[in-house]
Each structure stands twice: as structure tokens, then as C-alpha cells.
Amino acid sequence: MNRREFLAAAAGTLAAPVTAAPPRPPNVILMLCDDLGNGDVGFNGSALRTPNLDRIAAEGVHFTQCYSGDPVCSPSRAALMTGRYPTRTGVPRVLFPYDKTGLNEDETTIAQALKQRNYKTMCVGKWHLGHLPHYLPTSRGFDEYFGIPYSNDMDPPVLLHNTEIVEARADMNTLTQKYTERAVKFIESANDSPFFLYFAHSMPHIPLGVSERFRHTSNAGLYGDVVSEIDWSAGEVLAALKRIGAEKNTLFLFSSDNGPWYQGSPGRLRGRKGTTYEGGMRVPFLGWMPGRIPAGRVSHGLASLMDVFPTVARLTGAPLPQKPLDGIDIWPLLTGKTDSIEREALLYFDDVDVQCARRGRWKLHIARHNSAVYSPAPPGGRHNYPLSAPELYDIENDADESYDVAPEHPEVVRDMQARIDRLIATFPEEIRRSYAATRARQVRPNAVGQYAVPE
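RE: above sequence
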């Protein structure tokens, strides 16, 4: 190469565009409470003090119509982790320490999807998707686990680190503090790569426990103290993000697995945990990501916790599983690009039984059990009975489901029933059989009371 050729080549090299490194995918933190009611947080009008959560709501978006995948613990968590109805994933009911089953091993969790994008992953807190080693978080996409593998009222309430017992009987009064310390430690140590933290509090599920620092501080009894400590925990997580400079590259989501149980408030909604009324299924939901999610927004769009998986996958570039998801990408709702997203009817299951469907403003009730959850079954056993006539509620104007408008809107009832029929046809055989059995049961046409009465 002569001098002229060398200079020309050098000039071409200098003029060539520099390829920028691809942007780092965002961190994701999902904080979930156990049995926290829709009316237990300040941003939803509660008298309980939740200043940190209220600040997060003011700096981000909170939803007024977000729904759990089920009104009880294990199924709701299966729906959250997979983006699919729990009745598809092998977890239609609450799991107990004597159970040998768990989330179907051929299901893909959010953590497993994010591992394909080289995320560091940790689960802190309640798991409740199977307690045997091959069902625990460390076998489902999480690098590390610290928590109780089921509800804190189940015996024995063992505290695990990965698969090893570190406390044979966890101290409920120090549990929220211990969880928070582990979560913060993970955040501060994982910032050399994108990370996913699933932080699932055991509280305010009973038995309630709170540290001395928060005892008698809420003026709302032990339940209020517990909620105050959860609120503190959320503040600690955001403070840790600020210390490592990760605030603007972290999506923080906050919610609850279902409605309140014995204590707590569903707000102005009818029903509680274990029911498919709004109070059992509608949950608080916050989204926070400075610079990406505008501050101070309230979204009235219909959302489900099943939407978390596809939304996180879209934001992070993680691959979706081969099995079809029931959730949808709600990033446009989180960011305010749209006020609502068209979606298929949402089904409300209680165990293997479908009882309601929600689409747009309408909610149709078609069946109920003949006893409440955790109650002794009546003679003949607990069964799902069809209502003598379907009940239709305009949820946007009647959120507490007080006024049945089915007689005024027969066309809506027919459309919703047809949608339920089409959707159920896509479920496993057990669910289809249960649906057919419910439809075949006979009730007296003038049945009175909450539950239909069999002939």
C-alpha cells in the first residue's frame, strides 16, 4: 500500500460510523402482598397510612380496575408467574404442605423467560407453587430463593434459603424485616447486569406479625401496623435503587394476590378473598418507571395480573413461551398511550369452576359454590351450581354489584355466555368436565339466597 492509499484507507476508517452498544435491558421488581385489600392503601382512599406507596403512585400510575387471576393464593400466583389461567397450569386450588404437586413443570415462568436474556433473578418471600425441590423457585428460573414456600399459617412455617431450612419455624414478627434486608442486598449486588426481583410478602396474611419498630404506630391495630411495615419495605426497595443509580432503568410493579381475608378492606367492593365478587378479585396495582411511565396517572383500563408476563417480556425483549398466554401486553396502559385495550373476556374461576366473566363495563355471574371457601361442605359435598338466572352488572357504574341489569340487556348476556362457552373449550379436560357438570345441575327457578339451591 502506498502513502496515498494508506491515507485514503485511514480516512475511510475515521469516517465509518461507530456502532453503539445495545442499551441494557431494564431491571424488573415485582412486589406482591398476600391478602392486601383494594381498600387497604392510601392511593385507593384508605385511612391506613401508606406514604411510600402513595408517593410511588404519585410518581407513576395506579390502576382502578386490575384483577388477580384467582381469589385465593396458589392459583393467583400461578397466573401471575405464567401469564395463564391457573386452571391451565395445574394449580386450580390452594396447595398445602401435604401436597406433592405444584406448578406444571412444562409451564414457563417470568424468571425462566428473563434468564434467556441473562438476567440475575431472585425470589424473596412466599412462593406457594409447590414446596418439593423440583417445584421451588430455584428450579423455576430463580438463581436464589429466600422465604416461606407456602402460606405463613401452614405448618411448619419453614424459612428456606434456596432449598435449605434456615429457620424451622419462622418468626412472624421479624419476617418482613428479614425479607426486606434480603431484597435490598440482592438489588445492591446485582447491578452489574439486568436483574429481576420477585418480592412476595407473606403479610398481611394471618397470622399477622410486625417488628417492634412498627408495633402500635398505625392507630389501626395490628393489621394497620403490618401494612405500615409493608409500606416501609417498598420505600427501602426504592431507596436501594436510588443508591445504585438504577431508578430510571427499573420497572417497579406493586400488587396483591387477591382480596382481603378476615381483616382488611375491599374498599367499596362486594365480597372478599375466596369469592368471585369484585372484592375477592380486584387488587391494587402500581406501575413506576421514571422517564418511561408518566407521573400522577390513574388508569381506568381493564388489567389482569396475567398481563405482567407479556408486558415484561415486551419491555425486556424476553421470549414468550410456546404455550399461548391469556394475559396481554398492557405497556400502552402503563405509559398512558391509550386509555383501554380491547381484550377477550376475563374469566373468574373458583377452584376448577368458572363463575363469572368480565368484558368492558359488563360482568356476568353464571354460577356460585354452595359453600364459602374454607367452610365445611354441606351434605352432598361442595359443588358449583348455576344461578337460576345469570346476573349482569355494569361494573363501571355499579362496582359493588348491587343491581342486576340482565333483564334490560339480554343481548349482552347472550354474548357473554357465548364467549365463556368458546373460551372453556380451550381448557384442559378437567375444566371442561366441571363446566359441563355445573351446567347440567338443576336448581329451583325461584331459589332464594346467595347460592342456588339444588333440586
